Amino acid sequence: MDYVLEILGPMVDGSLITIKMFAIVIVLSLPLGLLVSLLRISRFKPLRFAVGTYIWVMRGTPLMLQLLFVYYGLPFLPFGGIMLTDMQAAVFAFTFNYAAYTAEIFRAGIQSIDKGQYEGAKALGMTYMQTMRRIIIPQMIKRVLPPISNETISLVKDTSLIYILAMNDLLRTTRAIVQRDFDTTAFIVAGVFYLLMTLVVTFVFERLEKHYAAYEG
Amino acid sequence: MDMKMIEVQSVYKSFGSLAVLKGISLDVAKAEVLAIIGPSGSGKSTLLRCLNRLEEIDKGTIKIAGQILVSDVDGVSHYAPPAEALAICRQTGMIFQNFNLFPHMTVLQNVMEAPMTVKKVKKSEILPEAEELLRRVGLFEKRNNYPSQLSGGQKQRVAIARALAMKPDIMLFDEATASLDPELTAEVLKVIGQLAEEHMTMIVVTHEMGFAREVAHRVIFMDHGEIVEEGHPDQIFSQPKHPRTQAFLNSIL
């Protein structure tokens, strides 16, 4: 027990990095994903194609590769490379990767809404933007909560990939402790930490689902 | 009252190779109630949906309250610019067979939504009006319920209140009672009847022949994308001239 208390300090510090990464990425990637999903169903074909390509690349290559490319590759771009700190690079890669996945979930949600909703709104004189904002997107959110909850929980755990940029998140800190002390207790503590974090996420989504359960449809 | 609220001239509309409207022309005067009857697939719903641009026509002219929604330029339909077309269509309200209420909003919110979002009316202004409209359709007590908690007839009455909240000059009813049980149909028809008494201009696409006969000033029988016969309800229902009208009325009565 004393040992656990001893390693707790650095592990909490590692968790804070994990939580910070998670929080920034979720706040950025959900709105970006929504925007991407709207562009994906736009009437403008070149735009649909461009967004489709973006989603293909993001889902078709490993997140790890994207992370490495953003951090090590971007500085060497031919026309003015971009040098990012490890945190910036990680946030950048994760946000664009997760936005691609959530965009497809949002798109499926939007397309599951009955055509009659658009017609009802149009017959009342609402523009396309008003219809999306007031009628379609609010209903879509209710339907996509379960899959978005999945993605969000995945993100909590996927943040551990940033060890590759030598960022001291929870998992990298844990590994360092295990290698230093030849004691695997830290793995168990890390597992408990991840479970606590995902528990909070699960709780938040359960509350959201309850909130939206007020109506059927 | 001779003013024309709706003028439709030689309107053509196809879905792919299927011609749905084959040169439809009709006028509706202010405060007139026009009933359109006919077999399914006759194009009557499509015609109605063209009047508020839920469908776009291929050829022809449509004027709403004297304003040109779409005109014919060298045989091709030419719509008014988007903002103008939207403003023209806002003079119509439409009621659908499937209600199309917004399920995530309460009854009251459904009624207030369009005035607040489209016309930017303040909530404090629209609230008493919305409550009054709900009283008129007999659903004030249900104002805080969600649509899923209502019967079909109640839903349709909310839909009517919601459309009226935009203060339309013309109401379009697209088989408003087709998915309702007979006893629920009656309560909706009563509300439509009240609107007729208040001199609302209306086009009612319906299977309710009794209602058409009672409320409509004029009846149009459509078949295969054409207007086959039109006239006073008594004439159409008692002494239809065209064999297709006779056959249709015989088949349903």
Report strand order across the widest sheet of chain B. 7-8-9-3-10-11
> Which structural class best describes the helix and strand composition of chain B?
alpha/beta
Q: How helix-rich are the residues of chain A, as a percent range?
A: over 70%
Shape of chain A: flat
Distance between the termini of chain A: 51 Å
Report the largest inter-chain contact.
A-B, 22 and 29 residues
Strand content of chain A: under 5%
Order of helices and strands of chain A: HHHHHHHH
Biggest sheet of chain A: strands, sense, closure?
none
Anisotropy-based shape of chain B: globular
Run of helices and strands of chain B: EEEHEEEHEHHHEHEHEEHH
Number of helices of chain B: 9
Structural description of this entry:
The complex is a heterodimer of chains A (about 220) and B (about 250). Helix content of chain A is about 80%, strand content about 0%. Chain A has helices at about 1-40, 45-60, 65-75, 85-110, 115-125, 130-160, 170-180, 185-210. Chain A is flat, with a radius of gyration of 21 Å. With about 250 residues, chain B is an alpha/beta fold. In chain B, the strands form two sheets. Chain B has a six-stranded mixed beta sheet, sandwiched between helices. In chain B, strands 2-1-4-5-6 form a five-stranded antiparallel beta sheet. Chain B is globular, with a radius of gyration of 18 Å. The two termini of chain B are about 35 Å apart. Classes of the chains: A mainly alpha (about 220), B alpha/beta (about 250). At the A-B interface, helix 5 and helix 6 of A face strand 7, helix 3 and helix 5 of B.
Describe this structure in a few short sentences:
Chain A has helices at residues 2-40, 45-60, 63-73, 86-111, 115-123, 128-158, 170-181, 185-212. With 217 residues, chain A is mainly alpha-helical.
